[in-house]
């Protein structure tokens, strides 16, 4: 290879849909987290309109605590899933040498 020649890389720029599909396969709790985000924002908007005499700053502080709790719960569930998948959900691989002639 000549020194002046640069290597050719097969670079494919992902669209947003492709990136979302790839990330959802790698970590399925991301989709659950996005759904929870949309649900909590919807609930926040609804409860803000029906907050009564509560001041806006108190409402936002209360909503912030709820959002942080949901984030910690999602992170804990994701870590538990990853721990299970990496350590406990391993299937045993039986070597062909272990099988006897009658088991084939």
From TrEMBL:
<feature type="transmembrane region" description="Helical">
    <location>
        <begin position="29"/>
        <end position="46"/>
    </location>
</feature>
<dbReference type="GO" id="GO:0031966">
    <property type="term" value="C:mitochondrial membrane"/>
</dbReference>
<protein>
    <recommendedName>
        <fullName>HIG1 domain-containing protein</fullName>
    </recommendedName>
</protein>
<dbReference type="Pfam" id="PF04588">
    <property type="entry name" value="HIG_1_N"/>
</dbReference>
<keyword id="KW-0472">Membrane</keyword>
<feature type="domain" description="HIG1">
    <location>
        <begin position="1"/>
        <end position="93"/>
    </location>
</feature>
<dbReference type="InterPro" id="IPR050355">
    <property type="entry name" value="RCF1"/>
</dbReference>
<feature type="transmembrane region" description="Helical">
    <location>
        <begin position="66"/>
        <end position="84"/>
    </location>
</feature>
<dbReference type="GO" id="GO:0097250">
    <property type="term" value="P:mitochondrial respirasome assembly"/>
</dbReference>
<keyword id="KW-0496">Mitochondrion</keyword>
<dbReference type="InterPro" id="IPR007667">
    <property type="entry name" value="Hypoxia_induced_domain"/>
</dbReference>
<keyword id="KW-0812">Transmembrane</keyword>
<keyword id="KW-1133">Transmembrane helix</keyword>
């Amino acid at each position: 290879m000549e020194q002046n020649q640069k290597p050719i890389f097969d670079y494919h720029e992902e669209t947003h849909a492709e990136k979302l599909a790839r990330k959802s396969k790698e970590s399925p709790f991301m989709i659950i987290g996005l759904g929870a985000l949309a649900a909590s924002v919807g609930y926040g908007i609804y409860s803000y309109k029906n907050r009564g005499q509560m001041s806006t700053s108190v409402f936002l502080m209360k909503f912030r605590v709820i959002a942080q709790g949901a984030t910690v719960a999602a992170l804990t569930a994701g870590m538990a899933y990853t721990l299970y998948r990496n350590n406990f959900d391993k299937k045993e691989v039986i070597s062909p040498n272990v099988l006897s002639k009658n088991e084939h």
